[in-house]
Input
Amino acid sequence: MDGVSKVSIIITLIIAAEILFWVFIVLGLVTRYIFHKEKFSMLLLSCTILVDLFLIIATTFNLYQGGTAEIAHGIAAVYIAISIVFGKDFINWADEKFKVLYLKETPRQKIYGNQYAKQYLKSFLKHIIAFLIAYGLIYLMQLVANNPSSLNNLLGVIRIWKIVLIIDFIITISYFIWPKKAKLDT
Output
């Protein structure tokens, strides 16, 4: 199998992982709120972790088998790290949306000002943790790669993410300087 095919396999796996992540969330929420099966719901929601684990193994195995380390491998590390760090937040967000749309519950009130800035800061700190996890996964990929000449592609993903982190840091600070205000109804 040539390098292009191996990269397209990794991209396909990333897309499949993202789809499966949301399928398990939706199935978990439907099972919880429509069928009232709390334990089975938790099992389905827990499957999101298995999806991440599969993607880690498949990506690393691809490199171990001599696959060229491409940007897709780095993106897989980013996806996994974000899923690990923000997965529970994504599930909570979907849970709240499900309750509002299907159970007709009142949505939570939006927050503004200093409270919003603090929440955004917590999210930024999680962003840093996700970055560090992705960096660790990329380091792991470098250790098992049997094609070390292609590893600069993985580091390119980290370089781009550093820029994203800097931008996110600036946005975080801006919310403390210029607090987010409620929009006035006109």
In short: The first helix runs from residue 3 to 33. The CA atoms of residues 45 and 88 lie 10 Å apart.
